[in-house]
Amino acid sequence: MSEPILEVRNLVKQYPSVTAVDGLSLAVPEGVCFGLLGPNGAGKTTTIEIMEGILTATSGEVRYRGAALDQRFREEAGILFQKTALQDFLTVRQSITMFRGLYQRGLDVDEVIRLCKLEKLADRDNRKLSGGQQQRLLLAIALVNDPVLLFLDEPTTGLDPQARRNFWELIQAIKARKRTLILTTHYMDEAELLCDEIAIMDRGRIIAQGPPRRLLHEHFAEVMLELPKQDFPASARSLPLRIIDTVERVEITTDDLDTTLRILMAANVPLSNLRIRPANLEDLFLELTGKELRA
Amino acid sequence: MMADIPKRLAAVWHARNLEFVRDRSTMLFTLLLPVMLVIGMGLVFGGKQRPLFKVGVLATAIDTQAHPFLRERYVEFVPVASEAQGIQKVTHQQIDLLLDLHGTPRYWVNTDSPKGYITEKLLLASAAGAQRQPVTGAAVRYVDYLFPGILGMNMMFSCLFGVGYVVLRYRKSGFLKRLHATPLTAFEFLTAQVLSRLALILFVTTVLYVGIGMIIHFHSAGSLLLLVLVAVLGALSMVALGLTIAARFSSEELVGGLLNLFTWPMMLLSGIWFSLEGSPQWVRWAAGLFPLTHILDAARAVMLDGAGIGEIAPHLLYLGVTAVAFLAFGAWSFRWRYD
Predict the structure, then answer these.
(1) pLDDT tens digits, one per residue of B279-318
(2) Which candidate, B264, B37, B20, places its Cα nearest to that of B151?
(3) How many CA atoms lie within 13 A of A243 on its CB side?
(4) A-B interface: how many C-beta pairs under 8 angstroms?
(5) Which chain A residues contact residue B19 at CB under 8 A?
(6) What are the chain B neighbours of A90 within 8 Å (beta carbons)?
(7) pTM
């Protein structure tokens, strides 16, 4: 594994009534897409904003290429916040041009516009963009200095499914340019699709970290069985099965599908609505914390 | 890197200019308000003098026991520091008579002034042997006196509210937080805002100076270049003050209150509407703290009396020093985030 481009050591962020980040350490290798996952309130945004140099930590340190965050970091990092408003009355092109002027080096404004598929919107007032278009403009601004390291804080929250898919394509194009990405999300499909490595956060701490497939492999024996709650009688809860309850479903993890099915049939559990699927990150989070990610 | 500072300043400066120029309603309001004020004030006060007779006395304070004339009713007596200053006021008919009671009483009266004629008669009733020193000169119309005041007031509102609320809006919307994630420093951001507003104010003030000057037939007695210098330093000082007020806070109510706290005393005490001569010493001392007082004193000295740079140098120095001090304090206390 290459040297970490960004390293966080013993990070603590204490607010008067809550510890948002509680002794967190992690290292992000260069060239990967690193996902910081967790439910709302887990401390993701606080953590990423400290990593971006926007928030000051109560204690601990963040190092970019082995040094404290400095002017070089600001020149080489690109940031997409969860929510950003731009100046009124400026067009898409003018907004990008303004930010381009703040950096020593970077991409040509037209190239960024092309990269983020904003050609047809270049002369439109940035207040007259849809949610997805606005997010593409903010991504363009984050890319304007051709960043070595790109932070994306919940980039697709609030976008419709089509806009989310379009945005993922853009991020995959950036990944193809061998850039390092740090992404927070509570969408597990997003993390599985985009991230090479993930850290799962809960209550300001990392509770699991590694490549998604490895984590799933470590924690799950291959498959998940899902049943609607109403199809799962109370008597079946005493069966020798690993059962996890979600809001609407009962999930059973197993490495021996045949035996599990036989047990369920013997207990007269109706299986017409049974769904069998491989375990995903959502299951992993549930397994680790007992909580649903989008709760 | 230092070499990139101008580039970053230019980027923020240009974007802010575009934002302002395209905001048509604000732009129109910025231009129309002072024009309406001058026309309104000119109509109300045009050509009229204040009702009292006003006599300048060469002294640091008025001692009514010094001479029976100083006890006359319906005459306002104001101390005048120097003979030259007093003669100039008589010439412009800002006072009706100048009196020197040191030794044999002497007085200066403007032979073109009807009020001077009456005041002279009043004086001679109690000081028959006083030496007469006649001067001549047309009265400075109230509208001429008011003109620099209105330009200065417009400048003050534009500097304080225009800049203060913009920074507050940027902070609340998260735009400042986004800028914080770039290599831009607080000092660069604030300087770009100052320069953008300065360019706008110079443009608007020039338009108003030419436009209103034509309406009221005003001609400056002094150098226009010197007036530009007064405007530049004055605007810098007040924009920097506005930024300092908005540098840290996120509450519109608080910033609005603070801006009012500065603008209202300036409105009343900086001499926009009338001269502070004759007002208590502490009022004049307090007024001397406000940048607007120095702007107006310097502008009137140039516009009405034809003063040169040497005469207004203390005002220019005060404006320059406060501009740097406010900007430095603003950058030091600046907050990017809205919490």
Answers:
(1) 788 888 888 999 999 999 999 999 988 889 999 999 999 9
(2) B37
(3) 17
(4) 76
(5) 87-90
(6) 15, 18-19
(7) 0.73
